[in-house]
Design a protein that fits this description.
4-stranded antiparallel β-sheet; 15 helices; 46% helix; flat
C-alpha cells in the first residue's frame, strides 16, 4: 500500500500537535498478559479501565519496544479520554448508532476469533474470556467507536483549507522530515475483453442447475460452495458472505437474495461477475446473511488470441501515427475508462499515479518499469474486476522518479495532510472546551501524565 504523505507527516512530524482519532483495538491477542483490572479514569459517566490501556500498550510495545513505558501509557490514556469525551457528547446529544449496525461488526469480529481459535473452548483458554463475554465487550467497544467517529465528523465536517494554507502548512514542516515519495507512473490502457460465447454461458448455467438440484435433494450448500464456487473470498467459508444491507451488493444479486426465506435457494442469477445460486442463512432487521456459489464463464483460447492480435495491430497503428492512443481507446477499448481516452485511475486514492506495487497488481505482465515515456507495451493478458481474462496494451505517459515530497509534484497529498491537520486542531480546541465542563477523574497512577492535546 502506498504510504501517503499525510499519514507520514501526521505520524512523524505532527505527533506533538495532532490529536489521534479513536481506533478500535481487538480484545483478543495471542500474547495477552493478565492484569489486575481497575478504573484508570472516569470521563463523564464512562469508565476507562487499566485493561484497555494495557491492551493498547501491548500493541505499541510490539511495534516500538518498551522504552518510555509511562509516557506511552499516558499517550494511550489521552487518546482514550478524547474518545470518551466524544462518546459522552454523543450520548448527551442522542447521536444514533443502531443495534443492527453494531451487530454486523460484532459478528465479523466473533467469526474471525472463532476462525483463529477453532472452538469456543480454545477461545476462552487463550484469551481468558468466554464467547458471551467477548460479545459484550465488542458491543460496547464498537458502539462507542461508531458514536465517537460520528461526533468527530460533526465537529470537523465544515473544516476546509485554502491553497495558501496548504502552502503555509508545507512550509512549516522540517525539510529533513519530509518523506521520500516512491517512483510513480501515469498510464493509459486499451483493453479488449472478448465476448463470452453462448455455448460457454449455457455450460455454466447447466453446471449451476445441477448443483442447485443437488442442494434441493439434501446435499449441503456450504460443502458444494467450498468445492465449486469461484469466488475466492467466500468459497473457503462455504460460500458465506456475512451480513449485508441493501446497497452493498450488485442489484440483481441483492434483489434475489433479499427475496429469499431462510434456507431457500434462489434460481440462477446473472451478474457482471458470472452466474450465482444463493441460499439465505439468516435475516436480521434490515440485513441478511447469505451464501452463494459463483461460476464465471471463461473466454475461449481462440477468442483470447484474436484479442491479442487485434491489440498488436492497434498498437502498430498508434506507433505509425495513423491514430492517437486516446482515439484508439475511445474506439476499440472495452474498459470503463474508454471515454476518457484510456487514462488509468488508481482506485486506492482516485489519482492517476501508480507506484511499483500498484502497477504490478494491475498489470502483472507489463514491464512498466523498463519502459520509456510514450512507449506502448506489447499486448499482455490481465484479469478484469469481473474475473474474466482480457488483453491490454499500456502506454507510459509519465514517469516521476523517487523524490522528496514537494508542492509541485505532490500537492494532492500535501492538501490532504493540511486538511487532516486543520481538523485535528479543531478537534483539539473542542476537546479543551469539553474538558472544562466534563467531570474527569484520573487514578493516582496517572496523576503525573502530561497531556499534549487535552489542555
Amino acid at each position: 500500500m502506498i504510504m501517503t504523505l499525510n499519514r507520514h507527516i501526521l505520524n512523524k512530524v505532527l505527533a506533538t500537535c495532532a490529536v489521534a482519532a479513536f481506533v478500535l483495538t481487538p480484545v483478543t491477542t495471542q500474547s495477552q498478559e493478565t492484569v489486575v483490572d481497575g478504573v484508570a479514569a472516569i470521563v463523564g459517566k464512562n469508565i476507562i479501565k487499566y485493561s484497555e490501556i494495557e491492551r493498547a500498550y501491548a500493541q505499541v510495545r510490539m511495534r516500538q519496544g518498551v522504552a518510555d513505558a509511562f509516557n506511552n501509557r499516558c499517550a494511550i490514556l489521552e487518546n482514550l479520554i478524547l474518545s470518551n469525551l466524544l462518546v459522552h457528547k454523543g450520548e448527551i446529544d442522542s447521536v444514533e448508532v443502531s443495534d443492527d449496525e453494531v451487530n454486523q461488526y460484532v459478528d465479523y469480529y466473533l467469526k474471525n476469533d472463532l476462525r483463529n481459535y477453532g472452538t469456543r473452548e480454545n477461545l476462552r483458554e487463550q484469551t481468558g474470556f468466554t464467547y458471551d463475554e467477548l460479545k459484550e465487550q465488542y458491543q460496547r467497544m464498537i458502539h462507542n467507536s461508531l458514536l465517537s467517529r460520528r461526533v468527530e465528523y460533526q465537529i470537523t465536517e465544515d473544516v476546509s483549507v485554502t491553497p495558501r494554507e496548504v502552502t503555509d502548512f508545507f512550509n512549516t514542516l522540517p525539510q529533513d522530515s519530509l518523506p521520500m515519495m516512491p517512483e510513480r507512473y501515469d498510464l493509459s490502457e486499451i483493453v479488449i475483453e472478448p465476448q463470452i460465447s453462448e455455448t460457454e454461458r449455457d455450460r455454466v448455467r447447466t453446471q449451476l442447475a445441477e448443483l442447485r438440484e443437488r442442494v434441493l435433494k439434501g446435499e449441503k450448500f456450504s460443502m458444494l460452495a467450498t468445492l465449486y464456487s469461484q469466488d475466492p473470498g467466500s468459497a473457503k467459508k462455504g460460500g458465506e458472505l456475512g451480513f449485508f444491507s441493501r446497497g452493498d451488493m450488485v442489484g440483481a444479486f441483492e434483489s434475489a437474495a433479499f427475496a429469499l426465506k431462510p434456507g431457500e435457494v434462489s434460481p440462477i442469477v446473472e451478474t457482471q461477475y458470472g452466474f450465482h445460486i444463493i441460499q439465505l442463512i439468516e435475516r436480521r432487521g434490515n440485513t441478511i446473511n447469505a451464501r452463494h456459489i459463483l461460476i464465471t464463464p471463461q473466454v475461449s483460447p481462440d477468442d483470447l488470441l484474436a484479442a491479442r492480435m487485434r491489440l498488436d495491430s492497434i498498437a502498430d497503428q498508434v506507433r505509425a501515427g495513423s491514430i492517437t492512443f486516446e482515439d484508439a481507446a475511445r474506439k476499440y477499448s472495452t474498459a470503463p475508462n474508454a471515454k476518457q481516452g484510456g487514462t488509468c485511475v488508481n482506485s486506492a486514492d482516485g489519482s492517476t499515479h501508480f507506484d511499483k506495487q500498484a502497477v504490478a497488481e494491475r498489470f502483472p505482465a507489463v514491464p512498466v518499469q523498463g519502459m520509456e515515456e510514450g512507449q506502448i507495451s506489447p499486448a499482455s493478458i490481465i484479469k478484469n474486476d469481473n474475473g474474466r481474462q482480457a488483453y491490454c496494451i499500456v502506454r507510459l505517459n509519465h514517469k516521476l522518479a523517487s523524490h522528496r515530497a514537494n508542492l509541485t509534484d505532490d500537492y494532492d497529498n500535501i492538501y490532504n495532510a493540511a486538511l487532516a491537520d486543520a481538523k485535528q486542531r479543531r478537534l483539539k480546541q473542542w476537546a479543551a472546551k469539553q474538558m472544562s465542563i466534563t467531570y474527569i477523574h484520573l487514578s493516582d497512577d496517572f496523576k503525573d501524565c502530561v497531556f499534549h492535546n487535552l489542555q
